[in-house]
Amino acid sequence: MFDLINGLPVHPLVVHAVVVLLPLATLGTIALVVRPAWRRPYGPLLLAITAVATVLIPVATSSGEALEKHVGDPGEHAELGDQLIWFALPMLVLLAALVWLDRRTPPGTDTASRVPQTGALKAVAVLALVAALATSVQVYRVGDSGARAAWGDQVASK
């Protein structure tokens, strides 16, 4: 199913979407943690971007497995790619919780009624930050290993 489109492998096409959207999602998550005022206007858009990137990860791994049948085993890249979903999913869930908790309290609510939510909001924000940083590192590892698998022999031999 995720093998070829017009004779071209699907994997590089889908991977480029993940490589653009997932780092954008991690940077956006970090921005929403650092700048709480951006959560209401940009939170839903960032949540949609993160969801699309997360949904595309299994498509990228499936298409990578199909490509593997044509070009051979990419080694470590396949293992790292399979692990990426386990970094993106927690980030997606934590981002959704951050946006939801932030929207749960109407603007202008007095501080006394926000105290319990503020603690939960801060905890979720810290966890979302950690998940975004971990996802960024994993995206780099997957991309680096993929570039080495695809181009390492050709560039190193010149």
UniProtKB/TrEMBL annotation:
Transmembrane segments: 13-33, 45-64, 84-101, 121-140
Residue ranges constituting the DUF2231 domain according to the UniProt record: 7-156
Keywords recorded for this protein, A-Z: Membrane, Transmembrane, Transmembrane helix
Pfam families per the UniProt record, alphabetical: DUF2231
Entry-linked InterPro entries: DUF2231_TM
Name of the protein this chain belongs to: DUF2231 domain-containing protein
Taxonomic classification: Bacteria, Bacillati, Actinomycetota, Actinomycetes, Propionibacteriales
